[in-house]
Amino acid sequence: MSETLLETIHNPDDLKRFRESELEQIAQELRAFIIEIVAAKEGHLGASLGVVELTIALHYVFNTPYDQLVWDVGHQAYGHKILTGRRDAFHTNRDLGGISGFPKRSESEYDTFGTGHSSTSISAALGMAMASALKKEDRKHIAVVGDASIASGMAFEALNHAGVSGADLLVILNDNAIGIDPSVGALKYYLTKTKSGKETGNDNIFESLNFDYSGPIDGHDLPLLLSELKKQKDLKGPRLLHVRTVKGKGLKQAEIDQVRYHAPGKFDKITGEIPASDSSKLPPKFQDIFGHTIVELAQENEKIVGITPAMPTGSSMKIMMEAFPYRAFDVGIAEQHAVTLAAGMATQGLVPFCNVYSTFLQRAYDQIIHDVALQQLPVIFCLDRAGLVGKDGATHHGVFDLAYLNCIPDMIIAAPMDAIEMRNMMFTASQGLELPMAIRYPRGRGKIVQWKQPFKQVEIGSSRWLKKGKNIAIVSIGPIGTMIKELLDQENLNCTHIDMRFLKPIDDKALEDLFDTHKYIITIEDGTVVGGLGSAVCDLAFAKAYQGKIHKLGIPDEFMEHGPTADLHKIAGIDCSSTLELIKRLK
């Protein structure tokens, strides 16, 4: 069987040996290869399919990696990885020990900047361009950014600086009118108008920022792309090429249902169909518990509003947006704005639920401190995807929230163990708190099927004694407590187990009781061991002169890589077998 053209490409130099007329076939083969692997292994599909032609053209025209290419977010970098020496390893994409699903500097010299969060590419590429100018290097710098990402504040900051920098920077705007969900905001409408040719050069926003603007052009027209990129290669200074693409291009279902096929899971590589599954008897996902619960609460309290930065589907805020379209808001990729918007609403007596993925709330840390906590505004943060999230890896693990929130005065920090607790905490938060509250919960499903129970008020700062034993006490927070409960029951272990529920205010009385009655205390959390539950317990133990031994279990003080969540829990030592081994050593 003869080799495909793609199989002969091990790096961009191999790609350059082909005639331009052969690149169309390579594009077909690259798209088919991505579909075949992702169909079986899962991953981010739609974005990578949408930039196949652009990826080929960039590596064909520019001298990568000397010319430096930065992919914003990195959802769309699969084709880039395949063409830059990782085709044979691509089947390991997102596997434990395999290649990352995002650009990663330690993985390849072609990955000039590690990405995973949005809107960083222009700043990074500008920094590279300015450094090259200082070193008197003649190299090109290209940032590929999406229409959803370029609306973020950080991207505007970079454009504002780049426009007066004189740097040799090419920004390629990959405009497909969608991020993970459809793009929102005024800039989206501006770009739509630009694509239709209704605006003139005199009111072009990018030219107003001192960028040499070109486009829009068809991002699937390879000859046109090649021609335009060759022109751009010969230009200097800040410039922007507006490229119009279709997310999911080449797979009919992915083009039609772009939200679902952003990361569709496993699907049929021929038909594109996603296997049907009956989830009616399974426990719900935590995100759906949030979505249905906030609607219930909003039905009884007209002051409740919902806010999410560009994740209505992923967070299930979409459920409220459909039920109360004028009381739920997608603000786009703008975490800082989302937090301060919520703060503004809170000053007017509204009850804002601000739903942000844990890893993305890191981007709004100043706003949490300055705009919310300092003013004691009762914003309710619902932190989805807390803990280890699995194959998305280090950029997406939500393992720092307990620690980075714990040092902020006047923050209430809660981590429900199960769906019923989560509902009750949301209910409690909506009942007139005077301080901000964060409720963190993981990706995926819980274990309680009959979760829709009547609401009950939860005493802020209270814990739950789930089991009383002797000698050894286990103090857990969040859903990992379910594993501890099952372990103690299955192994018939005579250990005390407390579900803390709140990291702040922490239940000092319950912990002091443990100090008086137990020789060993094990703390366990799916967050970093530095600054979280274990640290809080150790601080109190020191203050109370506890004479026993405390073992802190949690995410080690390092960045955890990608892989199945169960495997990562084992590596971190917070899985069932590791915990059992420790208990047996102490008995």
TrEMBL record:
State if Magnesium is listed as a keyword: yes
Q: What is its quaternary makeup?
A: Homodimer.
Q: Any binding details for the cofactor?
A: Binds 1 Mg(2+) ion per subunit. Binds 1 thiamine pyrophosphate per subunit.
Q: Per the UniProt record, which EC number(s) apply here?
A: 2.2.1.7
Q: According to its UniProt record, in which pathway does this protein act?
A: Metabolic intermediate biosynthesis; 1-deoxy-D-xylulose 5-phosphate biosynthesis; 1-deoxy-D-xylulose 5-phosphate from D-glyceraldehyde 3-phosphate and pyruvate: step 1/1
Enzyme kind, highest EC tier: transferase
Question: Where would you find the membrane-spanning parts of this chain?
Answer: none
Q: Which residues form the Transketolase-like pyrimidine-binding domain?
A: 284-449
Q: Where on this chain does Mg(2+) bind?
A: 147, 176
- Which protein are we looking at? 1-deoxy-D-xylulose-5-phosphate synthase
Please tell me the species this chain comes from.
Nonlabens dokdonensis
- What PANTHER family does the record tag this protein with? 1-D-DEOXYXYLULOSE 5-PHOSPHATE SYNTHASE-RELATED (PTHR43322), 1-DEOXY-D-XYLULOSE-5-PHOSPHATE SYNTHASE, CHLOROPLASTIC (PTHR43322:SF5)
Reactions accelerated catalytically: D-glyceraldehyde 3-phosphate + pyruvate + H(+) = 1-deoxy-D-xylulose 5-phosphate + CO2
Q: Which GO terms describe its biological process?
A: isopentenyl diphosphate biosynthetic process, methylerythritol 4-phosphate pathway; terpenoid biosynthetic process; thiamine biosynthetic process
| Residues binding thiamine diphosphate, per UniProt | 75, 116-118, 148-149, 176, 335
Q: Name one GO cellular component term.
A: cytosol
**Gene name linked to the record:** dxs
